[in-house]
Amino acid sequence: MKMENSAHSGIPTKAGTIGGTLFILLLNITSAEVLKTAVLAAVGASVSFGVSYLLNKLLRRRRPR
Questions:
Q1: Residue 29, CA distances (Å) to 20, 33, 37, 43, 58 in order
Q2: How far apart are the first and last CA of the chain?
Q3: DSSP 7
Q4: How much is the average pLDDT of 13-39?
Q5: Residue ranges of domains in the chain
Q6: Is the pLDDT of residue 6 over 70?
Q7: Dihedral angle sign, alpha carbons of residues 58, 61, 63, 65
Q8: How far apart are CA 15 and CA 8, in angstroms?
Q9: What is the pTM for the complete model shown?
Q10: What is the mean pLDDT of the chain?
Q11: pLDDT at site 11
């Protein structure tokens, strides 16, 4: 039995595995989870921006000009 040792022989298997995994994930993700993720991302970005802004203001006050 001869095994084909081509660089392209595994592409259909990989594509099928990735496609099937993504399809199952899409079926299992609800709109409530997407909304929760979006809200948490917005809160995280806002907090990060606020902390960076405040630290920047505090550090500028301490620097001699």
A1: 14, 7, 11, 21, 42
A2: 79
A3: T
A4: 92
A5: 30-65
A6: no
A7: positive
A8: 11
A9: 0.56
A10: 86
A11: 86
By residue count, the chain amounts to 65
Is residue 64 classed exposed, middle or buried when 0-12, 13-18 and 19+ CB atoms within 10 A define those classes? exposed
Place of tokens 């606020």: 50
Q: What is the pLDDT of residues 35-61, one digit of tens each?
A: 999 999 999 999 999 999 999 999 998
Structure tokens, 3: 């095994």
Read off the amino acid at residue 8. Answer: H
What are 64's two structure tokens? 């001699």
Structure tokens at 36: 């929760």
